[in-house]
Give the backbone structure.
Amino acid sequence: MEQSVKPKKKRKFVTPKTAPYMFIAPAVILFLIFTMYPVISSLILSFQRTSGGVTEFAGLANYQRLFNDPLFYKALGNTFTILIIQVPIMLTLAVILAVFMNSALLKMRGFFRVAFFMPAITALVAYAIIFMILLDENYGIVNYLLNMIGVDSIPWLNDPFWAKVALIIAVTWRWTGYNMVIFLAGLQNISSSLYEAASIDGAGKIRQFFSITLPQLKPIFLFTFVLSTIGTLQLFDEPFILTGGGPNNSTLTISLYLYMNGFRYFDFNYASAIAYVLVIIIAILSWLQMKVVGDKE
Amino acid sequence: MMKKKKTRELLKKIGLYSFLFIGVIISMFPFYWMFIGATNPSGQIFSIPPNLTPGDHFFENLRNLNESVGIWRVMFNSLVITLIFTAVSVFICSAAGYAFAKFDFKGRNAIFFTLLLAIMIPYHVTLIPLFKLMADLEWLNTYRAVILPHLSYPFAIFLMRQNMKAIPDSLIEASRVDGAGEFRIFFRVVLPTMRPALAAVAIFLFMFQWNNFLWPLVVMNSSDMYTLPVALSSLVGMSRIDYGQIMLGTTISTLPIMIFFLLLQKQFISGILGGSVKE
C-alpha cells in the first residue's frame, strides 16, 4: 500500500531477476561447504598417504591395499550376503502384507497400517538395542519361546552364521512395514477394471496376482529395491550395536569397516578409499537395476 | 449355495485376520518389551519365565540412567539440535525449492542436477573430510557441528520443488502486480499454501536428525554433548550392562516420536516415505 503512494526513489535490489539467487543462496553455499567440498576432498585423500604428520601423494596405493585386504573382501561379502538374502525376503513379505491389507474383507485398515509402520519410526540405535536383548543367547525371550516348542537355544549373536541371521531378522522387522505402505499405495492405483476383466475370463485370485498385480507393481518394486539396496550397502547402526561386527568379523559391513579405519585406526586416507569404492558400487548397482527393469518394459 | 459362499467368506476372513494379527504382534511386541524393561529392575528382563507385566522401577531406572549418561542433558542436546536443525532446514530447503520451481534463471538446471546427484551419494563419503573440517575449526563437541552439515538437504529441496510446481504462476504474478516484494510473496503467499508439504518435509528432517547416529558419534566425543542415540550406544559398551536403564533410554528416544506418529499418522507416513506415497 505504501509503495503505491511513495514514488520509488532507489532501484530495488530484490527483483524477480535477482530473487531466485537469494532464495537458493543459503542452500547452495551450505551445500558447497558441507557436501561438495568433502566429496572432492575425500577423493583427494584417497590418493594420499599420511605418515608422521606428513601427507604425500600415494597414487593408487590405498586402492591397491584395498584390493588385497582380506577384511575388506569379508566386509563386502557380508554386506552382499545380507543384501541378497534380506531384501528379497523383506520385499516378498511386504507385498504379501500389502495384498492382504488391500483385501475388501478387511476392516480397521488404519489400525493395521499404523501397527505395521510403527517399527519404521524407531531410532536405529534403539531398536538394535531391543533386539540385542530379545536375542540374548541365555536369557532372551526368543530363545525362551524356542525352548518352549522344543528347539534348542540358538547362539544368535555369538555364532558367525546366526549373527548374520539376527541382523537380517532385525532389519526385516524395521523395514517391512515401511515397504508395505509403499506397495499398498501402488496396489490402490491399479485399476479395478483389470481385475474385473480377468474375473470374467475366469482367472482365479492367484492367477490374477501373478498376471496383473505383480506386473503392475513393477515400478514400485524397482523403487523399493533401489532404496533397500542403497540402505543395505550403508548398513551401520545395527551391526555396530548388535554385534560390533563380530563374531569373527561375520557381521562386519562396508560402512562399519570404513568407520573403524577412519575413527579407530585414524587412517583417513584408507577410509576415504573405502568410501569411494562404496560410491562406485552404489552407482553401478543403481544403474544396473534401472537397466534391467527398463529393458523389460 | 448362498450359505456355502458365506462360510467360505467367513473362513477367508478368519485367515486374513489371523495372519495380520500375528504380524501385528511381531511388529508391536518389541515395543511392549521395551516398556516392560524400562519399568523393571535390570535382572528382571531376563527372568525365566519372562515377566510380562510392568514393574515399579521406573524412577530408579531413571535415576541410574541419569547417573550414567546424564539423561536430562542428553535429552536437551537432542531436542535443541533437532529442533533448530528442522526449523532452519525446512526454511532453507523450501526457499531453494521455490526458486527451482517458479523462477527461470541462469544455471538453474545445472545447479539442480548437481543437487539431485548428491541424493545418490552415501553420506559416508563426506564423513572424513567433514570431521577434519570440524576438527580444524575446533567445532568438535558443539551443536553447530551436528546441525550445519545437513541443513541443505538435497532430498528435501527436491521434494519442495515438486510440491511448489503446483502453485499457479498467476497467483505469484498477481501479488507482484499488487506491489508485494519477492520475500513477502514467498512468506505470505507461497508458504501458507504449502502447509501439508512443509509438514511432511519437517517430519522427514526431524526424524533424520533425531535418529542420526554416525555423525554425532564422530563429532560428539565428550559425554555431556552426546545425543540420545550416542548416549544409548555408550551404555551398550559398558562392561556391566544395566538393562533397566538401557530400556528406559530406548523408551525415552522412541516414545515422543510414537505419540507424534499416533497424532499425525498421515503426515508422518508421507513424511517418512519422503512424499513418495500420496494419500
Observations:
- The domain at 71-240+247-272 of chain B is CATH 1.10.3720.10 (MetI-like fold).
- Chain B is about 75% helix and 0% strand.
